[in-house]
Amino acid sequence: MSQHDLLTLDAVHVSYGPVHAVRDVSMAVAPGEVVTIIGANGAGKSTLLNAIAGLRPLASGRILLGGRDLGPVPAHRRVGLGLALSPEGRRVFPDQSVRDNLVLGAYSKREGSRQVEARLAHLFELFPRLKERRQQAAGTLSGGEQQMLAIARALMSEPSLLLLDEPSLGLAPMVVQDIFRIIRTLRDLGLTIVLVEQMASEALAAADRAYVLETGRITITGRGRDLLSDPRIRAAYLGVH
Ligand SMILES: Nc1ncnc2c1ncn2[C@@H]1O[C@H](COP(=O)(O)OP(=O)(O)OP(=O)(O)O)[C@@H](O)[C@H]1O
Ligand SMILES: [Mg+2]
User: What span, in angstroms and rounded, lies between the C-alpha atoms of 89 and 229?
Assistant: First the structure.
């Protein structure tokens, strides 16, 4: 942990009543890093991301963004501080057009429409498929396109830190590759990303560093590429025995 970290978690606990979903998690993310959190179903990955986004209260511990304690900052104001979440299950508005879904992503900053138009134009360059379908209802998009939309919507607030919760969930292998290509492009553009994934091999390959979460605790941490060849990871998460 250093004073230059963009995101710092210090002994974070999150509970649902008696269920201790996240226990004593400390981690740090430097500007420009892609950090992945991998773990099995129910390990606490979404709970941790939602706590960072301000959607779940902490039972104890602290979360800092650029050195600032986020404790008193509600979720919608965290967006203004540069945090954006692309949630598990995508959560696009099915009856709204692609374009309207994107514009909704920008609203939290209440900016003038010229800035919103400029961001739309930029995102349509990154996601040409969304540009082609901008007038189409989001619910008629394929799963992969909806995932692209969920990521693009999060990017509309011009975050410094993007939180991605299982972007590959339920997608065909070729589409998963498209999603990871986008993640690499965003990394190359200098965005800092925390990526939660069950697709451990792809996530570790795309990430600078990784944390393994097991029943709410971090059990292993290291460089993404190093963990790809770690026997513990290979046996438990990559299906190699
Ligand atoms: N709203 C809730 N109320 C009570 N318990 C919950 C709630 N949401 C999650 N949990 C519990 O907290 C633990 C962590 O769940 P979480 O959704 O964070 O895991 P996850 O790692 O994201 O799993 P998945 O890979 O299935 O998305 C699980 O034991 C889960 O049953
Ligand atoms: Mg989850």
Answer: 30
